[in-house]
Write a structure and sequence with these properties.
- The complex is a heterodimer of chains A (110) and B (120).
- In chain A, strands 1, 3, 4, 7, 8 and 9 form a six-stranded mixed beta sheet that branches. Chain A has a three-stranded antiparallel beta sheet with strand order 2-6-5, with no helix packed on it.
- Chain A is mainly β and 110 residues long.
- Chain B is mostly beta strands and 120 residues long.
- The chains are: A mainly beta (110), B mainly beta (120).
- Chains A and B meet through strand 3, strand 7 and strand 8 of A and strand 5 and strand 10 of B.
């Protein structure tokens, strides 16, 4: 049960696009189209922004999008805004009522 | 309004026990699976344990297997985590989270968390 691999940090300027990768194994990301992404501002509860690899919950900006190829999932944020500065976590269902999170990526908006 | 409120955290010595609770409101509790997710201060999220809608299926991260027990009471709309043989590395903010559905398997609602500190 090793954590999914994410870059520790990414940064971008307002208006730019960034992509955060999330690499797992054949037992999690590759096996299930059940990757979700969470935005976490310090002191607040995490918030789901992508589920089912590509789907956005109601109320989440269309600037957030998700994809998957093989063992790797990705989150893209377009048109960066200052309020996007937060920690982002990927998560994959891994079968038998178990999940695995990524180590988290700190997004800095320059 | 969907709400999850955790309680039961505190300071405990290594080897000690704590029981966390999560009170759910604003939704039909027994329609959903639930999980506990923790965050070590300054570090990332870690899935700890999960339970299906009726408690018939449970699962644990390897790091807590054999020491923690998840349970639920659908009459009281509550989720629990019994933590035994606590270690310093169990120190974290513990969130309860609702599993959105069996087809999405995302955590669509989270509590603010309860802090567990294991220290001598």
């Amino acid at each position: 049960q090793s954590a999914l691999t994410q870059p520790a940090s990414v940064s971008g300027s307002p208006g730019q696009s960034i992509t955060i990768s999330c690499t797992g194994t054949s037992s999690d990301i590759r096996s299930y189209n059940l990757v979700s992404w969470y935005q976490h501002h310090p002191g607040k509860a995490p918030k789901v922004i992508i589920y089912g690899v590509t789907k956005r919950p109601s109320g989440v900006s269309s600037r957030f999008s998700g994809s998957k190829s093989g063992n790797t999932a990705s989150l893209t944020i377009s048109g960066l805004q200052s309020e996007d500065e937060a920690d982002y976590y990927c998560c994959s269902y891994a079968g038998s009522t178990t999940w695995i999170f990524g180590g988290g990526t700190k997004l800095t908006v320059l | 309004e969907v709400q999850l409120v955790e309680s039961g955290g505190g300071v405990v010595r290594p080897g000690g026990s704590l029981r966390l609770s999560c009170a759910a409101s604003g939704f039909t509790f027994d329609d959903y699976g639930m999980s506990w997710v923790r965050q070590v201060p300054g570090k990332g999220l870690e899935w700890v344990s999960g339970i299906n809608w009726n408690g018939g299926s449970t699962a644990y991260a390897d790091s807590v297997k054999g020491r923690f027990t998840i349970s639920r009471d659908n009459v009281k709309n509550s989720l629990y985590l019994q933590m035994n043989s606590l270690r310093a590395e169990d120190t974290a903010l513990y969130h309860c989270a609702r599993v959105g559905s069996r087809t999405t398997r995302d955590f669509d609602c989270w509590g603010q968390g309860t802090l567990v500190t294991v220290s001598s």
